[in-house]
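Recall the central idea of this unit: under ordinary conditions, the amino acid sequence of a chain determines the structure it adopts. In this exercise we apply that idea directly, starting from the sequence alone.
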Amino acid sequence: MFLHALKWCLGYFKGVPEILAPDNLKPAIIKASRYGPGVNRALEDFCNHYGMAIVPTRAAKPKDKALVENQVNLIYSRIYAKLRNQQFFALSSLNQAITEKLNCHNQTRMQLKPYCREEKFLADEKPLLKPLPTAPYEIKFYSTLKAAKNNHIQLTCDLHYYSVPYKWTGEQVKVIYTRSMVRIYAKGEMIAVHPRNYSPGRYSTIKGHLCSHHRHYLDRSPAYYIEKAEKKSDELAELIKLLFKKGKPPEQNYRTCDGLFNLYRKTSPEIFNMACKHAIECQAYSYKFILNIIENNKKSFQKEDGPAGIPNHENVRGKAYYEQLSLKF
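Accordingly, the structure predicted from this sequence is:
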């Protein structure tokens, strides 16, 4: 809200001053200091966008903002006090009434001065203002992510994937995103720019970012996965064909197919093909279902290889021992 109010304030003046002198409120100043105050990152981005320097007032020095405090008192007495008995049913009507009172205040002659505040601003101050930037300001958000093996990072707030150049695969990158754009940086250099996409589970990919090993991510299709599965086993090919016939969008099944191929590499062909057959019979084609079948079979094999029972030895008490009414030693 603080930045939103500043944005409308600069729009009202139709210009940008050289210096912004805020009070030491938390949305502006994280830690007050006379020589090196800690400025809120959002406010710093805002001032960089408009080309303003930030010089906050000193803590516990009311004289630094005496004129501002006096104007606040005048605004309360000349605007809010005159509207206190009126009732409004819409925000637009309230804003209109405030604007009328504000214009009246700015156009009222000042005491011992031959001019009003509006005339003083137009004559002396407005010519010194810099023009407003053409692009509107958007709040920036920051995140540090790792580029995955498929040359993409996942923006977790949207669950959407954005490509990065393949040489940064496995590296930590800095992501700065706004409402409309996503910018990716590595070692202080901007390596990728994408329009922000709010579709979860989708990919925003620039083909030049992918190395030759990963270009198949752009050309993925059901035919690609079916052809790849036919080279490995008939059961896997049949399972993938049925998976794509379920009626879901094909993109939702691509990661399942990748998981099945990963299981195929890690599992013996007999167990994997048996799991695929069982999944086809049950009409359950999910990665997790097949993984559970494989894990259960591995556990059953481990039990069969283990000891069948307790071996016979002299220390085992027989049935007759527990049938005794009284123990005899």
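The mean pLDDT is 87.
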